[in-house]
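**Fold in tokens:**
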Amino acid sequence: MLKKVFAIGAMCAMSCGVSFGKTTALELVESSLKDVKSLGIEYSCYGDDKYAKCQFKDLNTTLFGLKNAGFEISLTDYQLKQKAFGDIVSNFGQDVNKFVPNRFECSSESNLVVDDLDSYGVEQCVLKSDVSNLRVDLKTKMHSKAYRYKTMPSILLKNIALIQKISKDFDDADEKYNNKVSKLREDRDKQIGEIYDEIEHFGMLLESKGSHQHGCKCGECKENEEVKEFKEMHAIKTREAREIREKYGKEYDRLQKEYDDEVQGIFDSAITILKMYDFELQEARVYIKADTLADTLFTLSNKRFFAFNKNIPLTKEQELMRAEKKKRITAKYYSELEASRAGMITLVKESPYLSDNLRATLQKVIIQHVKLFDPNSRTRSVKVLITPLDNVPFNLGDELQKFRNIYVDSNYHDDDNATKAYFDIINKYDIRAVREWPLD
């Protein structure tokens, strides 16, 4: 499953800069939503060669619901525009729901420059809640020889087919492996179950014959011979059970290796395709606006105190007691806020993976972010700018190969080197809080 997530995720990253590729906008949408339909999510689409829109039927789960969700695209030979939107209904309770996103709006525009073999993308995504909004803007560039002599509608026709094929190959390999393992366990349990019945039978016979008697009194020698025979049969059946477990253990190892080899072949085919694509994050902007976040959190963290009916008259002594209690509540809130700030800064300072540059800039990001939770702070928004340090794109296939080698070589247990590999990518960027966005 982890390999499938890596491979399909990277393939989708390859696809993000351009069309999902069939000949018309409507066919494109219906093709890209094929897997969604297989999950039982209902929707209806309409459109033509250049424009298509899909509306999804409201979806309800235990914790979340999705309403008024839709997806739109407009398509020309060298440009694709996409938009996804919807309302999120949360079922965590009135207080928690205030902090959970209740609306999302995401859009992207991709432009293909065939002569340069480049695709330029501009993406924007907004998450809204009752107390804050998060907006992310991205500028990306994808370079590939696969773009040569292609148009936007055709460029990913082959790639989407490949993504779907790779996904199906992973699913087929999983299904085949699970079926074989299930059958293997069924056969093993049946054989061992029969032997355990015999072991239990001989055990009961031993108990009934008094296997712990000593000596040989009149008429008991024959019985002790039977006990000896029962002990031998009990030992034989116990040994047989152990041998069956070992036999099926070896067969399970063989099936596991067969499965790993098949999945690795699928994974390697994905890497081969992805080596054709060089990705560059040119700029990312993260904007958090939280006008009421601090006041709402402070009030809810002391709900019983602030729920007091202010119209109830109080004596002077009671007013003083409430004022003193509010001081204690406020001191406790700020103490927890400071502890959170100090903990995050310590985590950044002591990280063995972060570059010196990011250790310094991320501490400033944390300081600005924590101010959003301070009711007495004037900071009600934070801007974070992410830019590459060297403008050198990275090859999707090479990066996926790197993670593949780490996990495969360590049998998926080398979390330290995997974490370092992630941070090697992050350290290629400058991440800092800014007062204003740079001029385009």
Observations:
- The chain has 13 helices and twelve strands.
